[in-house]
Write a structure and sequence with these properties.
The chain is 72% helix and 0% strand. It is built from 4 helices and no strands.
């Protein structure tokens, strides 16, 4: 370790939470496609996205507390971003469906 670079990651640092956040977000995105076919699958990407965002923020806070023990800040940020998309897209899809149903029954 170079003392001139205090934020260097130790060789044994664990990026576990960052990886877990990114995996949850990607799974949330891949479960969006069955949502378009089966309406009852619509809650799964939403909850996986929320879990990805929470785990990503937990990973970032742990990295800030002890950067020599934990790593994967970029993975955690990517998990937060992908999780946010996995939250927003099903929400928009549900709002559009509700709007369509209201439009159909208001005629």
């Amino acid at each position: 370790m170079n003392p001139n670079y205090p934020n260097q990651v130790q060789p044994g640092a664990s990026p576990t939470l960052g990886i877990f956040s990114l995996v949850l977000g990607v799974i949330g995105l891949f479960t969006l496609f069955p949502t378009l076919i089966f309406w009852f699958c619509g809650f799964l990407p939403f909850f996986l996205g929320i879990a990805a965002v929470i785990v990503g923020f937990l990973g970032i806070s742990r990295i800030k507390k002890d950067p020599s023990k934990f790593s994967g800040k970029g993975l955690a940020f990517a998990g937060i971003g992908v999780g946010a998309v996995a939250i927003v897209l099903p929400t928009l899809y549900a709002l559009l469906n509700v709007g369509y149903i209201v439009y159909i029954f208001s005629r």
